[in-house]
Write a structure and sequence with these properties.
The structure holds two protein chains of two kinds.
Chain A: H1 7-16, H2 20-42, H3 45-62, H4 72-91, H5 99-102, H6 123-127, H7 130-140, H8 144-153, H9 160-167, H10 171-188, H11 190-195
Chain B: H1 3-15, H2 20-32, H3 37-52, H4 62-72, H5 78-83, H6 85-88, H7 93-133, H8 144-151, H9 158-164
Classes of the chains: A mainly alpha, B mainly alpha.
């Protein structure tokens, strides 16, 4: 029996045929998880968005050569991981460059202005502040691979096998990365985890 | 609960809320192992904290900007892709070390081969020189042309033969 085609891969095949609507659908679906991953890794929202845009541009440019060999999510997260780790390596040497300014011919053609309305999700209200900062700090102190493994672990569309494929290591190695990262987080956030004061601040909300 | 099942529930909890079956199995385990309660408490608290950790807000104009960027982006040139190291070099330090080692070995092998070819050519040239060196001494060769000329006379001297008879 033939395995059913991953719906996102089907969209990507439409992009391959030049369907911009399909590309827009993919961008709408994946923009949040990709920006989320970039933000957790770089801790700079503007840079995270620029890099996420780069990821989608790579996806679009690779559409002609796209073959369905794995789940689309695994593929896009692999591209995102490569760009993210490259950026982390490059960050110390060069300042971040906006995607818009990096496009040749950008000077001649003024970009259209799009209104930006950022909407903050409700839990941010009660996790915004000291605890959010502590989580960011604790996560920021983890080695890149552990941090990335923990971030990807929260992506529901990825199984452990797919996370392992994105990270380029085995499933046991991936689980070990997550375990070690979590142990460090538990150690650093112990007072908060034990007090549980933050849980009383608002309703439980799963992403 | 077996260790594997315990580990499976733990790993499931890293990613999502536990199902009722998993929760029941966990409670059963904790009833049998009260010493594990604190560790599980921290584990569950971290899970809840990460679940509630808000995702960063994405600009509402993200997709519009992206579509514009895609239209303005230059087409990729295949030769450029091929030469971009990140495109074809395998990822990971071990791979890179292996690739570098292979390049060094290839370089050493090529150098050794070129040295061997050079030495073989030198040996051939020396052999030629040694053949020249083995020739008779020069004073032996002063009448060489005359002697050589005598040996090349093929026609019999009939007058001389007749006189001798």
């Amino acid at each position: 029996m033939a395995t059913p085609l991953d719906p996102d891969a089907a969209l990507m095949l439409r992009v391959k045929r030049g369907d911009m609507k399909a590309f827009e659908e993919l961008a709408e679906k994946y923009k949040q998880p990709i920006v989320n991953m970039m933000y957790r890794m770089l801790r700079d929202l503007d840079e995270a968005e620029d890099l996420a845009q780069n990821v989608f541009i790579r996806v679009y440019q690779s559409a002609k050569r796209y073959e369905v060999s794995a789940k689309f999510s695994t593929w896009i997260f692999t591209i995102a991981r490569r760009l993210c780790l490259n950026e982390i390596r490059r960050r110390g040497r060069h300042p971040a460059e906006s995607i818009e300014s990096s496009q040749p011919g950008h000077e001649e053609q003024a970009p259209r202005q799009f209104e930006d309305v950022k909407t903050f999700s409700p839990p941010e209200a009660f996790l915004h502040g000291e605890l959010a900062q502590k989580i960011e700090e604790a996560l920021g102190q983890l080695p890149d691979k552990q941090r990335l493994a923990i971030v990807l672990c929260r992506q529901e569309e990825l199984s452990y096998e797919e996370i392992a494929r994105v990270l380029g290591c085995s499933v046991p190695a991936t689980k070990s990365l997550i375990h070690r990262g979590r142990e460090t987080l538990k150690e650093k956030l112990k007072p908060y985890l034990q007090s549980g004061a933050w849980e009383a601040d608002g309703p439980k909300l799963c992403r | 609960m077996r260790d594997e099942q315990h580990q499976e529930i733990k790993e499931a909890g890293w990613r999502r809320a536990l199902t009722s079956d998993e929760e029941a199995a966990l409670q059963k385990f904790l009833a049998a192992h009260p010493e594990a309660r604190q560790a599980w408490g921290e584990e569950a608290a971290l899970n809840r904290l990460l679940q509630r950790w808000p995702a960063p807000p994405v600009s509402s104009n993200f997709t519009a900007r992206l579509l514009q960027a895609v239209q303005n982006a230059p087409a990729r040139r295949p030769w450029r892709d091929w030469f971009a190291p990140a495109q074809w070099l395998p990822e990971g330090r071990a791979w890179r070390v292996a690739m570098c080692s292979m390049m060094v070995c290839l370089g050493l092998f090529s150098f050794r081969e070129s040295q061997m070819i050079y030495r073989a050519r030198m040996a051939r040239e020396l052999a030629g020189v040694s053949r020249v060196a083995a020739l008779p001494r020069m004073e032996w060769l002063k009448d060489f042309d005359t002697i050589n000329g005598i040996s090349q006379v093929k026609v019999a001297d009939d007058d001389l033969l007749a006189a001798l008879e």
